[in-house]
Hints:
- By secondary structure, this protein is α/β, with parallel strands linked by helices.
- The protein has helices at about 20-30, 50-55, 80-85, 95-100, 105-120, 130-135, 140-155, 155-160, 180-200, 200-205, 220-225, 240-260; strands at about 5-10, 40, 60-65, 90-95, 125-130, 165, 205-210, 230-235.
- It is about 45% helix and about 15% strand.
- It has an eight-stranded parallel barrel with strand order 1-2-3-4-5-6-7-8, surrounded by six helices.
- The longest helix has 20 residues, at about 240-260.
- It is found in: Cytoplasm.
Amino acid sequence: MLDRPKLVVANRKMHGNLPDNRQFMQSLLQQTQQHSARYAICPPHPYLYQAQQLLQNSHIAWGGQNMSRFEHGAYTGSVSPLMLKEFGCTYVIIGHSERRQRGHENDETCGERFEAALKAGLTPILCIGETLEEYERGETDLVVVRQLNPVIAHVGIQALSQGVIAYEPVWAIGTGKAATPQHAQAILSFIRGHIGLLNEQVSEKIGLLYGGSVNPGNAAQLLGMPDVDGGLIGGASLVTEDFIRICQIANALTELKTAA
């Protein structure tokens, strides 16, 4: 099995202001020195300049919460992949359920965005996951495959490994009700297996994250699962101490794996 250091990504959604952002990023910089795990912050787009100024030449990456599938054009209110790249972004979140639910993205356009991100030199974080109704009907496997396959169709299985996949059950996002570690492991193992049917090397290389009500109390169990390579953290990224604690847990697990 390939070595996959834990990756913890802060999705701060539509939160923050200049002073709070500075405090959050400076605290993270100071308290995650010499860590083996990887970290990234995805603030609202207006604060990407601040992230670039505070985090450049550091061990912490930053990225966008969304982007257009077009490089330029008459798309009022949209942000192009080239704009994100110009502000030093490494990552971009694609297909978050909060955007899918509002009709801004669907399975097909996520494939187009994933492809556009790779073309711009960004690492896309593709969010997939089922609603509560789909979960209760036992359709989780069908849903994640339906959401993943259009991306593979657009970029090919080899290029898929240049991105990251985040399994985020919709019923766990912002609800305080995280998936059990066993459920997260089962679905991520299924996703890795589905990719492995097409290319075993890609399935071993690609990073798989879990997102949905991760907090300092459950992070060790969730991130400790063999196919959970990190977390996409929403609510807990708004509390500096909580997010740093999750980062510390991820780092301890990474170093434990490296030492094994």
